[in-house]
Amino acid sequence: MGCQIDYLVQTKDQVLYICEIKFSKDKIGTNIIKDMQNKIHAMCIPKHYSYRIVLIHVNGISEELLDEDYFSYILDFSDFISDSSCLTRVAQSTLIETLV
Fold this sequence. Notes:
Layout: E1 7-10, E2 15-23, H1 31-42, E3 50-58, H2 63-68, E4 73-76, H3 89-99
Parallel strand pairs: 2-3, 3-4
Antiparallel strand pairs: 1-2
C-alpha cells in the first residue's frame, strides 16, 4: 500500500520532516491525525532515522487539533505569501529554515 506525502525533507542528521499541506476553506480538524498516522504507517522509514510531522495550512486549524499537540510544527502558509499571492524565494528559504 502506498501513500502521498505532500512534501518531504531529509536532513544530513537523519531526520525526515513529513509535511502535510492543506488548503481548506474550513479549519483543519483532528481527523487529519488519523490520516497522517496511516501515511506514516505506509512509509518505509530508513533505519536510524527519526521523523517530525509538519502541518502547513491555510485558513486555520481547530483548537482541538492544537490541543492534541500531534504535529512537531504547524505553519500558516499565508505567512509565506507575498502581496502578489506568490511564494517568494525568501519565503521558501524561510520555510526550509523553519523545518531544519
